[in-house]
Amino acid sequence: MKTLLLTLVVVTIVCLDLGYTLTCVTGKSIGGISTEECAAGQKICFKKWTKMGPKLYDVSRGCTATCPKADEYGCVKCCKTDRCNK
Q1: Which domain of life does the UniProt lineage start with?
Q2: pLDDT digits over 24-39, tens only?
Q3: pLDDT grade, residue 63 (50/70/90)?
Q4: Beta strands in the chain, from DSSP E residues, in sequence order
């Protein structure tokens, strides 16, 4: 009986994936990029392009709770898997 209970607990933990933290690429195109684990409640990675001039875009990346809006001449990509915003 104890073995069955222990097995059920292990299966539950594996299936629920308790403690999972999303990892996103963060930083700006100018200052360099790295990866970081997102804070609680931030379950989305984003990559945002902001037009700075003809054929010139500033790119920022990071974690967020909601997908940010694109600027008038920019673009945003949001995703929910590790390092999906490369």
Answers
A1: Eukaryota
A2: 999 987 778 899 999 9
A3: very high
A4: 23-28, 32-37, 44-53, 56-64, 75-79
